Amino acid sequence: MPANRNALIRYKTIDNCLRNPYRRWTLEDLVDACSDALYEYEGIDKGISKRTVQMDIQMMRSEKLGYNAPIVVYENKYYKYEDPEYSITQTPLNEQDLKTMSEAVEVLRQFKGFSYFTEMSDIINRLEDHVASARMKTTPVIDFEKNESLKGLDYLDTIYHAIVNEHPIQLKYRSFKARSANSFIFYPYLLKEYRNRWFVYGVRGNGRILQNLALDRIQSLEVLPQEHYIKNTFFDPNTFFDDLVGVTKNSGSVAEKIGFKVAAAEAPYIITKPIHRSQQVVERLADGSVILEIEVVINHELERVFFGYAEGIQVLYPKTLVELMGRKLKKAAEQYTHSK
Domain WCX: where (predicted)? Predict the structure, then answer.
C-alpha cells in the first residue's frame, strides 16, 4: 500500500492524467495536477516538487506497490501509458493489501449492531465477501445489484470531497430534455444513490431552488476551491427523503395519502417489501388481494413503481393520480392494440 494518504492522492492523480488520451502531459503538468489535487482533498497549498512526482512515477513503475505501471516518455517530454487500457485501479490486491483490508473489516464488524451503522451493513457484508473471496481465490458468495456500465461514477469521489470541503463546482451538464449542454456553477450538498444511479443535490449559481442532477448526465466537472461557497439552508438531508419514493421532490411538494389495491398474486411481494416505509394494510379482501396506503409525495419515480406492477396494482386515491395512471395506461394499451 502507498506510504501515506498524500502519496495515494498523487498516484491516483497521475493515473487519471495518463488515462486521458485527449491531452499530452509534461512533468510540469503532472506537478500542477498533483498540487491541485492535494489542495482540493487535503487543503495543502504549498505545492510539490518535480522531484516528488518523478519519484512517484518511479514507484508506480516498480513492483513495490504491485502497480508495474507501463509509463513511458515520448518526444522526450510527454508521459503516457504504453497500454491505453491500463490503470492502477485495476491492479490486483497483494497479500499485504488483503491483510490490511481484513483488519479494517474486522473493526467495522464490531459496529454492525449499532443504530448509527444500520445503513452500512450491506457495505460491510460486501467488503467481507470481497476480501474473503480474494484471499481464498474463490468466487464471491454475495452479489449486490450493480451497473458497471453506468456513466458518471468517475465523478463520485470528486463531488464527495467538494461537498466535504465546501467547494463549488463548475459543471457542463445536459439533461435528457435539453438539446445541448449548459455550463454553470453548482453548490453541491448531498450525494444520493437510487436504483444504481447517482444524483447530487444542490443549487445553481445564485439560485435558491434545490435541484438534483444525475451524475451520468455530467459531461465535465471542475472544482472551484477559490470560489465562495453557498452553504446549505435549503433542506435537511436527514428528513428530506422521509416522504419520498426516489429522488424527485419539487419546491412546495407535500405528501399525500395514496390508496391502492394489490392483486392476490402480487400482495406477498409488496407486503414483505413495502413501496415506502409509511405503507400500511387498510383491508384484506376475501380473494387474497389487499388494500394498502402510503403517504408520500407523488413523483415520476412513484409512477414508475406502480407501472412496474401493471395490472397487479390499482390506484384508488387521490383522484389526480388515478386519472394520471388511467391516461398513461390507456395510451400504453393503445400501442399494443394498434400493433395488431
Answer: 260-333
